[in-house]
C-alpha cells in the first residue's frame, strides 16, 4: 500500500494501518485526520472536500463540500466589504470533513472507527514537530485568529520555530469524543455550540440546525476517455471534472502529441490555448441541486470541434475577444491568488484506491478557531458573492454559483482516477485553487500521452491559464528564457508565479506502485 500527500507523518500512519489489516480507506481516513492535527491551515476538520473511491471494482464519488447556512441568500454580501466573505463569521460554510471521513469509513472501512482516529488523537495529545511551512503560514495569520486560535497556536504567546513541538490537548479531547460518537460529536452538542458561538460573535448567522442537518452526497463519477484510458473525474459542484474532460478531448482533437515535441514552445502554447478555452465555460457551472449544468453540451463533439478550430499554432487567442458585451462591462481586475487546500492518494497493489482533496479555501480559512482547536473555512468566497467581480482566486463566477441557503459552492478540487482495461493506472489530485485543474490535466497528459514516469511528470514545468485574467502563470526558474520569449512572440503575457502541487500514485500492469510528491512544496510519498 502506498500513499502520497503533504505530510511525512501520513506515510508511517498508512504503514501502521496496513500492518493492522486496514484497507485504503482506513489508511486515507487516518492520514486525513493526521493532517487536521499537523496541517490545520488546510487540513482542518472545519473544511470540506471531495473524494473518488475505487474498491473491489466499484467506483463512486463523495461530495462533502461545505454548505451555505440557512441564513445565506444572493444578497448576503451585496453591501458588504469584499473581506466579509474571507474573514469572520460570514465567510464560514457548514463544514463537511468530519461527516465525509466518517461516512467514507462507514461504507468502506475494515478496521474499527476508533482505530483509524487514534493516530491523530495521539499526535494531538503528545505533540508533533512543526515544519517551516507551519511556522510561515501560522505566524502570518496571527492577527486574524480569534483569541482561542492565538492561545492554541502561540503557546505562552510565543512564536514556535521549525522543529518545536506543539501539543493540542483541546483537539485531542474532541478527537476522543469523535472516536466514541462519530460525526455526531462534531455536528451536535458542545462542539456544535462552540462553532455557532464563534461564527455568530464575528458577524455570521449560524444555527445548531445548520450543523445537525449537514449531509454528504454520494455521486456517480464523471467519466471520459483519453487515448484509450478511462478517466474518472469529480462531477459538479467540482468544475475540475468538466474542464479536465474538455482539455483532454482538445488534446486529441488538436493532435497536440503528434504535432509538437515534449516541452517545446509549440507544446506549451497548445496547452495554454486548450486550458484557456476549457476554463472559459467554468462560469456556467454550479451546485447540481440548484443549477442545471450544461456538462453534456460542453462535451459534445460539435462544441469541441468548434473550440479546436479556434486554436492556431502561431498566435494566442485573446480572452477579451471571447467575452460578451455584458461581460466586458462587469468584469474587474483579478485579485491576488492565495489558496490552502491539500490532496492525498492511497493505493494498494490490487488497484483499490482513493483520491481525496480537502480545503479550507484560504490559509486558516476565515481565521476563526473554536475552543477545541478547529480552524473554520472561508468557503463562502467560492460562491458568486459579488457578480462580475473576481473572488480571491481571480475567478469570475456565474449566476449558477449564486449564494443560496443549503447550496455548495463551485470548486476546482479535482481528485482523479485513471484506468486501462479495468485496471487502475493512476490516482492523483492537487491543491491550488483554479491551478488544481491545469496541474492535474498536465500530469495526466505527461503521464499518459508522453509516457513519463509519474515523478518526472509531476516535476516537469507547467503552464496555467484560467481564461481570466488573460495571463499565463508558470513556475519561476522552470522554463528557460528561450521558451518564455517564444510564448511572448505568440502573443502570450507571461507571469512567474507558483503552480499547484500534485500528488500521484501510478500502478504498472504487474501491480507495482510508484508514488511521488511535488517538489514545489512540502510533501511525502511512501509505503510498502
Task: Write structural notes for this entry.
- With 528 residues, the chain is of the alpha+beta class.
- It is 36% helix and 16% strand.
- The chain is built from 20 helices and 18 strands.
- It has helices at 8-19, 24-38, 40-43, 97-108, 113-126, 132-140, 147-153, 169-181, 184-187, 189-200, 208-212, 240-253, 256-259, 265-279, 295-298, 301-310, 325-330, 435-449, 454-459, 481-489; strands at 2-5, 48-55, 58-64, 128-129, 165-166, 217-219, 222-226, 229-233, 340-347, 353-361, 416-420, 423-429, 463-464, 472-474, 494-496, 503-507, 513-517, 524-527.
- A 7-stranded antiparallel β-sheet has the order 6-3-2-10-9-1-18.
- The longest helix has 15 residues, at 24-38.
- It is globular, with a radius of gyration of 22 Å.
- The termini are close together.
- Residues 332-338 have low confidence and may be disordered.
Quickly describe the structure.
Helix content is 36%, strand content 16%. It is of the alpha+beta class.
Q: Keyphrases for this structure?
A:
single chain, 528 residues, alpha+beta, seven-stranded antiparallel beta sheet, 18 strands, globular
Number of β-strand runs: 18
Helix amount, in percent?
25-40%
Q: Compute the gyration radius: what is it?
A: 22 Å
Strand order of the largest sheet: 6-3-2-10-9-1-18
Residue share in β-strands: 15-25%
Whole-Å distance between the termini? 6 Å
Low-confidence stretches: 332-338
Q: Characterize the overall form.
A: globular
- Major pleated sheet: 7 strands, antiparallel
Q: Please state the average pLDDT score.
A: 95
How many helix segments? Answer: 20
What structural class do helix, strand and pairing data support? alpha+beta
